[in-house]
C-alpha cells in the first residue's frame, strides 16, 4: 500500500490509493442510509398507505383504489383544492417571473449602490413565511394599512372605497366582474367564479417574497450575457427595446425555465400561509391540496375530523403526479426554444 | 464612452444625450429607492407597530408611528411570556444528544488523522476492532442514557442508539481507510466520546434551564436545531460531494442521477408516512425527528459537487503523490479551498431550518420543544386581541435571520445565484 | 495538549455543576404495586364522597406512589381553576401526585400525536373531536366500573351531556362543565329604541320586532349573529329541526324546522335587523355588545367574565333564550375528562377523573363562576343572575348537544358554510341548505363506514 513517507523527494509508486470504491461508498454512506430510510422507504410506505384505510391507532386495512376514487370524486374538497391551486399557479408564476425580471433589469447597472439595493430587495425573502403571514395578518385587517392605502388612493380620484376584509372574503374575481354588470354566477358553478379576494390577497403576499429570490437568479444570469452581443446589435442600429427582446430574453431562456419550474413546483405545494391565515376558508376558496393532506392526516379539518391517513396519502400522490406532468410539459415547451441557441 | 471612430456629434446633441443619460440614471435610482421602501415597508410598519398600544394597533386610520406613548414594554413583556408548562427531559436530552453527536464527530474527524508518526505504531488488527468497539460503545452509551434518564420506550432508545452508533462507525471506518496511526485514532475517539458526553449534558441542562413555555427556550430550540442541521450537512454533504466530484466508482452516475430525481419529490408525499414513522419511533417532540433525516440534503450535495468540480486538481494530485489518503486530502486540501461554498451551504441550510414551518408543526408540538415559527402560530390565536404582541413575536423571529443576512448577504446571494446558473 | 485538558476539565466541572443544580423532573416511573380494588362503597350517598380512609378516595384504592399526568387546554383563568381542583384532590387523595400540563393551543392535534406515539397523558380533556379520534380507536378507558365504585351514576348528570361520551353503552369520559346560549341585551339601547326589555317569555318573532325597532330608531345594530352553526342551533331546535337524525345516519338539513329557522334568519339579515360582528366593525358579537354597537345577541356564560374584565362600565343583562313554535330549545357545548387506556395508574387516574367531575369539586368550581355544574340538582348553586338566566337553557326538553357522530365537525361546518353563502347573497335558503344537506350526508356516510 502507499507509503507513509512525507519527506520531500521521496516518491511513492501509487499515485492514488487503491481503495477508491470502498472509500467513495463510505463517503456516500450517510447519504445512502438516510435516503434509503427517509426517502425511498418513506415514499414506498406512502404508496402502501394510500391503498389502505388507516386512522393511526388501528392497523391499516387494505381498501385498494378506494382512496383515489374518493379523492378524485370529492368535488367540493380535493377537486376544489386542485382548482384553487391551479388558478394560483397560472396567476402567480407568470407574475413573479415577470416582476423578478423587471427588478433584475432595474438593478442591472454597474453602479455602486447595486450591492446595497440588491440586499435590500432580497431582505424580505429571507424571513420565514409565517413571519410574513403574521405581518400581513395585521396589514390586511379591515382597519389595516392596505385598506387605508386604497382608501386614500380612491379618494384622490373622488371615489369611495369600502374596506374589504381581505382575509375573509370569498367573492370570486369573475363573480365580482359579473356583479359589476349586474349578473351573478350561481354557487353551483363555483369553478367559474374565479379566485376569491382572499386567495388573491394570499397570492400577493407570496409574490412579495418569492419575486426577489428569483430576481437574484435573473441578476446573475443577466450579468453573464456577453457584452459583445449588445455592442454588435448597436452597430446594427438596434434600440434598447429591440436589444431586450432579441438578445436578453433569449439568453435568459435557461434561467427562465428554471424559475418557472421551481416556481410551479413551489406554488403547487403552498401550505404555510393557508394553514396560518385561513385554514382553507372562507368557503373553501383557499383550500390547497397540501393543506388537505395535512388536515386529513391529522384530523384537523373543519373543527375536527376523523383521521384518514390513507386518503391523505392518495391525495399527495395525485398532487405529485399533476406537478410532474405540469413541469414536464413546461420543460418541453421552454427548453425546445433553448436548443436554437 | 465615445470612441474616436464615431463622428463627433454636434454639441447640442451631446448635451441632450448626457441629460438623457443622467436623467435615466436618476430615474433608476428613484425607482430603486421606491421599490426598496415598498419591499421593506411591511417590516418597517411592523417594527413601529410593535410599540403601539393594543387599541391603537387596530385603530383607523393607521399611522406610521405610534400616536400616543411608545409602549416599549411590549418587548420585555413578550420575553417574559410564559405559556406555562415545565421543560421535559426527553426533549432536552434529544437536543443535547444531537449537539453532542456533532461535537464528537467534529473532534474525531479533526484530530483522528495526523501525518506524523510518533513512536511505535499500534497494529491495525488491534486498533481497528478497538475503535469499532468504542464507536459502538458510543451508541450504546447514548441509548442507555436516553433510556435511564428519560424512561423512554424501547423503540426510542434503540433507534437513537443505533443511529448514533452507525454514524460513529462510519467515521471510524473512514479513518481506517486512511492508514491512520491507531493510537492517535483511539485517543481521538476517547476525546470525542468524552466531549460527546460533556456537550450532551451541557446542552441538555441549558435547555432545561431555558424553561418550558418561554421565549428563551424557543429561541434556544430554533438556534440549536438550525446550527446543528447546518453543521451536520457541512460534514456529510461535503463527504458525499467529494465522492461525486473526485472519486471514480461504479454507480456514480446512477446515484447522482437518482439524487437529482429525489430532489423533485414533492414534500406532500412524504408528509403522511414521515409523520407515522416518527410517531411509531417515538421521535415526536424530539430533536431526532428533524435532525437525523436532515443530516444530508440533495440540494446541498449538488451545490457542493458542482463547486468541487470546478477546483483545479493539481493540489490534490500532489497530495496523492505524497501518499495522502482521500480523507486526508479532503480535510487538508479541499476544505480550505471550498470555504465559500461551505459558507453558502451553512447559511442557506441554517436559514432553511430557521424558517421551517411544516416540519416543526408536525413533530415539535409540545410547548418546551416549540420553534419560533410554531410559537408564532400559537400566538396568532392567543393574541388575537393583542396584535401588537404578535408583531413583537414576528420581529423577534425575523431579526436574527435578517442580521445574519445583512452580515453575510454576499453568500446568500451567491448561493441562490449559483443555483440559478448551474441549475 | 495541556490547554486542551484544562478546557475539558472546566467544561466537565461546569456540566456536573449544572446537573447537580438543575436536575428536576426526571421522569421516574415507580413501578407501583398493582392496586387492589376492594368492592367499593356501594350504595353510599354521593354527598361528601371525598374518601375518608387514607388511600381510599372516591371509593377507589389508587396505586401506591402513583404519578399521573393531566392535560387540557384553557387560559390562565381555567388553568387556575384546575390547579385549585388538583389541590382539593390532593387533600382527598394524598398518595397521588398530579402533574398538570396545560396545552394552550392545538390541544387536539397534540393529543392525537401523543397518543399515537404511546405518550399520551393519563387524564385528558375530551371533546367530540377527541372522542372521535381516540374514543373510537380504543384509546380511552371505560369509566363505568370506577363510577360504580364511587357511587356515581350516569343519570346524575344532565342527560344531553352524556351523549358525546357514550359509545356502545359505555362511558368513556365524564362531562366537566358545559355552556349554553342566552339572549344578551343592552338596556341602554333597548330604551333608546323605545321598546320593552326582553324577558324569558319572548319568542323569536318578538326578538325580530325588537331588532327591527332598534335598527330603525337607533344607530346601533339590532341583533348580532354570525353565520355559525352554533348560533343557528337554538333557532333550528326550537322550530323542531335538527341537523341529523337520532343515530346520525341521515342529515336532516332540509327538514321543515331547519328551513323555517334559516328563512327567518336570512330575512332578518336582508332587512337589516340582523348584523354580523364584522358588519359593525367588531371581532365577535360579544365585543360588539361591549362597544355598544348592537343591541342584542346570543352568547353564553363567558360574557360574564368578558364584560367584567373588558367593559366593566357597560350595563348589560341576560335572559333565557327565546322560544320557537315547538317550545324553548338551546344548544349545549360540553367537554369532558377521560382516562388514557394505556395509563400505568388506572385506579389513580380514574379516581382523579371522578373527583374533578364529582359533586364537591363541581360545586367549588361553580362558586368561582367559571362554569356551570354538570348535575341538574346542582344548578341552584349558580349565583350570578345573568348566569342563571343563561343556564336555564340547559334544562329544556328540546335542548341538545350538536353532536352527530364521528364527523360532527364536518356536519356543523356544512351548516356554517351554508349560512355564509346565504349571508353573502350567493345562494337562497333552499339551495344553500340543499348543498349543506349533501355535504353533511357525505360526511355521515363516511363516518358510518369507519
What labels describe this entry?
heterotrimer; A: 341 residues; mainly alpha; MetI-like fold; 2 domains; two-stranded antiparallel ribbon; 14 helices; 2 strands; 66% helix; globular; disordered N terminus; C: 450 residues; alpha/beta; 10-stranded mixed sheet; two-stranded antiparallel sheet; 14 strands; 14% strand
DSSP strand tally of chain A: 2
Major sheet characteristics of chain A? 2 strands, antiparallel
Shape of chain A: globular
How would you characterize the largest beta sheet of chain C? 10 strands, mixed
Please, what is the CATH homologous superfamily of the largest domain in chain A?
MetI-like
Uncertain runs of chain C: 1-55
Percent of sequence in beta strands of chain C = 5-15%
Report the CATH C-level class of the largest domain in chain A: Mainly Alpha
Gyration radius of chain A (Cα, Å) is 26 Å
State the end-to-end CA separation of chain A.
50 Å
Structural class of chain A: mainly alpha
- pLDDT averaged over residues of chain A: 85
The multimeric state of the shown protein is: heterotrimer
Report the helical percentage of chain C.
40-55%
Number of strands of chain C: 14
* Main structural class of chain C: alpha/beta
Low-pLDDT sequence parts of chain A: 1-7, 9-15
Tell me the greatest interface.
A-B, 109 and 105 residues
Count of separate structural domains of chain A: 2
Distance between the termini of chain C: 67 Å
Tally of DSSP helical segments of chain C: 17
Could you please describe the fold and organization of this structure?
The complex is a heterotrimer of chains A (341), B (423) and C (450). Chain A is built from 14 helices and two strands; from the N terminus they run αββααααααααααααα. With 341 residues, chain A is mostly helical. Chain A folds into two domains: 48 residues, no CATH class; 263 residues, MetI-like (MetI-like fold, Orthogonal Bundle). In chain A, strands 1-2 form a two-stranded antiparallel ribbon. The longest helix of chain A is centred in the N-terminal third of the chain and has 33 residues. The N terminus of chain A is likely disordered. With 423 residues, chain B is an all-alpha fold. Chain B has two domains: 69 residues; 334 residues, Orthogonal Bundle (MetI-like fold), CATH 1.10.3720.10. The longest helix of chain B has 39 residues. The radius of gyration of chain B is 27 Å and the shape is flat. Chain B starts with 10 loop residues before the first helix and ends with a helix. The N terminus of chain B is likely disordered. In chain C, α7 packs across α8 and α9 crosses α10. The N terminus of chain C is likely disordered. Chain C contains 17 helices and 14 strands. In chain C, strands 1, 2, 3, 6, 7, 8, 9, 10, 13 and 14 form a ten-stranded mixed beta sheet that branches. In chain C, β4 and β5 form a beta hairpin. Classes of the chains: A mainly alpha (341), B mainly alpha (423), C alpha/beta (450). Chains A and B meet through α1, α3, α4, α5 and α6 of A and α1, α6, α8, α9 and α10 of B.
